[in-house]
Amino acid sequence: MAKLPHVVIVGAGFGGLAATRGLRRVDVDVTIVDRNNYHLFQPLLYQVASGLLDPSAIASPVRTIVRRSPNVDVLRAEVTGVDLAQRRVITSAETLDYDYLVIASGSETDYFGNEDARQRSTGLKDLSEALGLRSQLLGCFERATLTADADARRRLLTFAVVGAGPTGVEYSGAVAELIKHVLPKDYRRIDFTEVSVVLIEAGDRVLATFAPRLGRLAERSLQRKGVRIILGRSVRGVDDQGIVLDSGERVETSTVVWTAGVRATTPLDLEGDALARSRRVKVTPELNLSSHPEVFVIGDAAAFEQAGAVLPMLAPVAIQGGKYVGKAIAARLKAQESPPFHYHDKGTMATVGRGAAVAQIGPIHIDGLVGWFIWIFVHLLYLVGFRNRALALWSWAWNYFFWDRPVRLIISASDDR
Amino acid sequence: MAKLPHVVIVGAGFGGLAATRGLRRVDVDVTIVDRNNYHLFQPLLYQVASGLLDPSAIASPVRTIVRRSPNVDVLRAEVTGVDLAQRRVITSAETLDYDYLVIASGSETDYFGNEDARQRSTGLKDLSEALGLRSQLLGCFERATLTADADARRRLLTFAVVGAGPTGVEYSGAVAELIKHVLPKDYRRIDFTEVSVVLIEAGDRVLATFAPRLGRLAERSLQRKGVRIILGRSVRGVDDQGIVLDSGERVETSTVVWTAGVRATTPLDLEGDALARSRRVKVTPELNLSSHPEVFVIGDAAAFEQAGAVLPMLAPVAIQGGKYVGKAIAARLKAQESPPFHYHDKGTMATVGRGAAVAQIGPIHIDGLVGWFIWIFVHLLYLVGFRNRALALWSWAWNYFFWDRPVRLIISASDDR
Fold it and tell me: Does residue A284 belong to the interface with chain B, where contact is any CB pair within 8 Å?
């Protein structure tokens, strides 16, 4: 049997999995490489961080997801570099030769060079951070019960979230609900007027990528839950006592969650002109590196311009990119041309807690309970695997009816692996 | 208001929680101290280790469990010592004065002084070990897919369990099922004839505390699942290549799970005559230290003799001890005598995989599917909290009908806290 063309896919996120699926019936051998053995449903990560979902509800083993694709091999390894000239991917485990390469390596938290912020705050991009945050928040409450010094106690009980994009809004809303409805039953010694959630945003409104009306609705909804919102202030520094804003004002806190920015992360050794804003890789209309048409870059890692704007870092962009790449590679094998990539915007949404979400589907803007049900429906639709869907739905229903956040275990650094 | 007598309970296991519950309507202030913020349902720990259950299905926050006991305070801290003369408990957080002290601090893995074994094997006593084992086992399969050397690969794919008590039997059965029914679908590159589970027992039969017939049934059931059972051999040493038995025979393996022994662990500074076998604390018929009637010791930590034998380290012993202590303290406050503690044996059971368990209830011996349903019923009965019960039942049903082990995430040491 002749050796089939080898496609290496870097990253088992939304983009990488969509590309894998797209290549299922194509005559190629596929190797998908990821440092984790699981696909992570990142949009729900904040629910793990706020104690609503178990890690396994939003993470599925990659091998299980690709079980029915006989041409796919899974490699759990860190990709450390790409040799474009030799067409090789270098990983921590082995070196892979490729005929086609799909870079779907996603993004990481961007602290914009603020080293203090990086060291003293937590991002919300992977399971480790989400579980760390869960323990950190509950640990603060435990320590607060033992702290007589009122200032120290208030610092422990103030939770600051930097960045009011969807992640910052969703996480601060979830934490505010946890504090309002669940924790008072467990921490009777704590005076809950000392507890607060502060959301800090450099821009002049929350959810800047949504229509202004939806942003205002989200803002009001968060305020009703008790979230203090500081707009138009950026973070100058973070120290042991908390945050210093550019106005000089301080927010005294022991917990800083950083959702203010993300930047692409790829194993490609590119600099300068090859990169766009947020270190995303510039690509051709066919999602290729212009110098290497056998290399595709999709999702957060790619800067794809459409209608004068670069596509946002969202799961649907990555998924559509992955599907496109599957078709493009199939076409190339038959020496056919493929049309340029085109992203179909199916709308964006964000939830602001129990029974409230905002959704924007083209000209249609939806909010409140209807928005929330749409949000649940869409997220369940995308959640990988039936078990995860059922588990997540169960947890949501539980939370909705009992105002509970069931997963509140503090497990130390070496635990719960 | 006069200050109420203060009862300090060390440990939020079965015994500590039962004592707390027993004191709910007694005029005392209770502080329950545990290093973790959760109660762990230890009998199901092996199911977390084998990827069937999520940690949160067998762990519940202590604060949530005691919510409805207004006289109970929870302290998450390590108990570092007890000053019996001054009636003080010293913890990593604060020092607690007590009028009554309940030591329910449980047990830890006993390597019988075998330092090699301690360093190179994993116990199965806490969440951290169970999750570590889950990652270790899956990590071995990942590495095996990349290993060309047949000896190294077979070592990675051999899983050794030392000790054929209930934990060793249950865990090896669960791993054998995982290997037989689930992993072949995920690891298609692996030759499963190279995979094996080895159960090593120094005694001459498995489940030595059960009737011989039930032990034989369990043995045969494990063998049918492919577990290799080595009886009458103890472990002389553990090195990088695996286990050396006292016969000189080697078991080449990268994974050693140690369930061969447990010993009591208490913050009491006792030695010599005060301790019985397995470092359990000798107690009076009223579960007290003879020198300090205000100090109770219960569960695994205590050596209580009844009908010529010391009670086993089992959850029901701890639970009945805790209930007794609650009543004994109430009686003392009214200057009444309490009758000596008496343990009612309600039977023991062990599961040996999907649809098979052995149960021994006095003279009645049950096995097979009926045993398994009794096992499920009893465990659900004891599982703390409705959500946990429902989640565990869901997972079991899933496993039963789909032969699946849903939780198969490899999360590194610093993750999944």
Answer: no
Tell me which residue has tokens 């049997």. A1
Contact B413 A408 (CB under 8 A): no
Nearest CA in chain B to A388: B406
Question: Is residue A132 within 8 angstroms of chain B, CB to CB?
Answer: yes
Which of B38, B387, B404 is facing A398, going by the closest CB pair?
B387
Query: Whole-number mean pLDDT of chain B?
Result: 90
**Which amino acid type is present at position A230?**
I
Predicted TM-score (pTM) of this structure: 0.89
> Among A127, A411, A413, whose Cβ lies nearest the Cβ of B127?
A411
Determine the residue type at A263: R
B68 touches chain A (CB under 8 A): no
Sheet containing B79-83: which strands, arranged edge to edge? Answer: B79-83, B88-91, B95-97
The CATH T-level fold of domain B6-35+77-109+263-333 is FAD/NAD(P)-binding domain (3.50.50)
What number is the ipTM of this complex?
0.85
Q: Across-strand partners of B76?
A: B34
Q: Which of B36, B16, B31 is nearest to B96 (CA)?
A: B31
- Across A204-337, the runs of DSSP E, i.e. the strands, are 227-231, 235-239, 242-245, 250-252, 255-258, 262-264, 281-282, 288-289, 292-297, 302-303, 305-306, 309-310
Topology match between the domains B6-35+77-109+263-333 and B115-260: yes
Cβ separation A37–B408 shorter than 8 A: yes
* Domains of chain B, residue spans: 6-35+77-109+263-333, 115-260
Best of A30, A40, A56 to disrupt the B interface (most B CBs within 10 Å) is A56
> CB B55 to CB A54 under 8 A?
yes
Its sign, for the CA torsion A206, A209, A215, A218, is negative
Please list the residues that pair with B200 across neighbouring strands: B162, B230
HEC-encoded secondary structure of A133-191: HHHHHHHHHHHHHCCCCHHHHHHHCEEEEECCCHHHHHHHHHHHHHHHHHHHHHCCCCC
B170 is catalytic: yes
CB B194 within 8 A of CB B288: no
The end-to-end CA distance of chain B, in Å, is 42
DSSP state, B179? I
Closest CB to B415 among A394, A412, A417: A417
Catalytic residue, chosen from A115, A129, A170, A286, is A170
Coil vs helix vs strand at B304: coil
Contacts of B398 in chain A (CB under 8 A): 387
B357-361 β-sheet, strand order: B348-351, B357-361, B364-366
CATH 3.20.20.240, applies to A115-260: no
Which residues of chain A make contact with B94, given a CB cutoff of 8 A? 146
d(CA A37, CA B304): 47
Q: Which of B128, B409, B414 sits opposite A37 (nearest CB)?
A: B409
Place of tokens 């790449």: A325
pLDDT in tens, A295-353: 999 999 999 999 999 999 999 999 999 999 999 999 999 999 999 999 998 888 888 77
Beta-carbon count within 10 A of B25 CB? 10
The pLDDT confidence band at residue A386, using thresholds 50, 70 and 90, is low
**How many other β-carbons are positioned within 10 Å of the β-carbon of residue A127?**
24
Q: What are the respective helix, strand and coil percentages of chain A, to the nearest 5?
A: 35, 25, 40
- Cα–Cα distance, B164 to B162 (Å, whole number): 7
The average confidence (pLDDT) of chain A is: 90
